[in-house]
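Trying the structure run again after the queue cleared.
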Amino acid sequence: MSSKIILAGIATLTLTGCAATAANPQPPSGPARLGQTVYVDGPRVTPLRVIEDSRCPMNARCVWAGRVVLRVKVQGGAWQREIDLTLGQPVQVADGGLTLTSVTPDRRTDIAIKPSDYRFAFTFQGGL
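Done. Tokens:
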């Protein structure tokens, strides 16, 4: 009889742990699609739209490397704001710098990138 009580207690604790996790899910931290919120070492970042993607296609020769400018929503605690990030250039956000570090896929001359194919990676350096 005591083994049934122990098993019931374990099942209750297991289910309680699942309920607590589901109530406060943490956003993922990997590369984000447009519209997907990710956790970036402090702030939460949601890519909203590509403002500019003038990167040199990987199968072409260019005089200028080009750039990517991305509009994002940044949230931290009780605040949020929209900012434009340029690939590789940190922007001051709260107590640190938020940087768009990579954009995939690479551009090509023969294939257009669909908005749903984009993936964006970010870093946040606190204390800047």
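The first strand starts at residue 38 and ends at 39. Worth checking whether this holds up in the mutant runs.
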